[in-house]
Amino acid sequence: MNKEYFDRACRVTPGGVHSPVRAFRGVGGVPRFIASAKGVILEDIEGMSYTDYCLAFGPMIFGHQDPDVLEAVQAALHRGWSYGTAEPYSLLLAECIVKHVPHIEKIRFVNSGTEAVMAALRVARAATGRSLIVKCDGGYHGHADSMLVRSGSGLAEMTEPDSAGVSRLVAQETLVVPLSDFDAISRVFDERGASIAAIILEGVPANYGLLPYAPGYLRHVQECAHRAGSLLILDEVITGFRCGFGGVAAQEHLDPDLITYGKIIGGGFPVGAYGGKSCFMDLVAPLGAVYQAGTLSANPVAMTAGFVTLTKLLTDPPYERFEVLGKMLDQVPGMQRMGSIFWPVIGSTQTVRKPSDTPTQHREFYPKLFHKALAAHVYLAPSAFEVGFLATPHTEADIAKLLGLLKD
Ligand SMILES: Cc1ncc(COP(=O)(O)O)c(C=O)c1O
């Protein structure tokens, strides 16, 4: 049945999917059509179930159908699901974030991480009157044209690293530096700092596998950027609310000018956000001249899901529990992990910090690992370069089973 559905989907949708990695091209085989999900169990249309470590690529930190989120969303639906007006639900979510994340003075909700990044870059250009943006090699910041230059995520799997259809002029305004290279950052800001609007980088690079920064790297980047009068945009679409509530910005005591969010912020509904210092956020319309808008922005149902999710993270933080489960995973040779984000690197003998350091065996053998896991009813991310996630419903027994598969 999965095969039949996939054949049908391929007739009406490019590659049969609505986001490339879902197509299993990096691992081969037929994508599973998931009919329902509860806790950390996915069930496909053939009635097969799988323990989920992909978790919709990160948002489902409390697993699927968390009862508190479900109850609040059901109540929200009975109040209506789109007003196109001011409403109280986004206010609750915004106040919660501003109160608990030190680096956010003001925040604006959008519908995806991509949109959040697009808007943050626009604000940075408006604030500085400069046009260049610096990003890291392998960093993924969504699919805005200017960010599809040496990008990760689905592009990590492709033989051509960059997307077709991006104008050369746009691409030229994006400067790419190698990850964790202190000298390269110093050099780019020494040479072109006066034209650089911002550097954008992930809280932890987690779209080309998980590539921990060299110690002190983020601080060095911040110093170089601020010395040049450029903005630091920390992309916490993955790490926000997952690497502690305040994300990597709080963990590393950074002073980013703008932060972008997605994934967990909407509790599994389509929400992104950008926020940061008021002096920059006040440039956004209707206060300022930076235009950014959205018909469905701050959708009240999605805002409610986000608010309940973040409130739960504050009242019953899962981060210590994730560390306990994560420590079990550390027994796997080549495991790279940060809290509840993990990437098992096949054939690795030392920490991989740059895409080019990934052992060739990893790309070659990951599909075998993926299918072995799938046959054992375990759903890993369907790409060698997508990370795995933990959620609160995962048990020690789940992790022990995963360990058995990874260590074999
Ligand atoms: C760090 C980072 N930034 C931005 C994005 C884009 O977010 P979205 O897929 O919601 O557009 C992603 C998506 O995976 C991401 O991981």
What report would you give on this structure?
This protein is of the alpha/beta class and 408 residues long. The chain folds into two domains: 2-61 and 318-407, Aspartate Aminotransferase, domain 1; 67-315, 3-Layer(aba) Sandwich (Aspartate Aminotransferase, domain 2), CATH 3.40.640. 35% of the residues lie in helices and 15% in strands. It is built from 13 helices and 14 strands. The strands form three sheets. It has a seven-stranded mixed sheet with strand order 4-10-9-8-7-5-6, sandwiched between helices. A four-stranded mixed sheet has the order 1-2-3-13. A hairpin with a 2-residue loop joins strand 1 (34-38) and strand 2. Helix 2 (67-77) packs antiparallel against helix 10, helix 3 packs parallel to helix 10 (300-315) and helix 6 (182-192) runs parallel beside helix 7 (217-227). It is globular and about 55 Å long. The two termini are 30 Å apart. The mean pLDDT is 96.
- Bound heterogens, unique: pyridoxal-5'-phosphate
CATH architecture of the largest domain: 3-Layer(aba) Sandwich
- What's the end-to-end separation, in Å? 30 Å
Shape: globular
Percent in strands: 5-15%
- Total separate domains: 2
Structural class: alpha/beta
Helix-residue proportion: 25-40%
Sheet with most strands: strand arrangement: 4-10-9-8-7-5-6
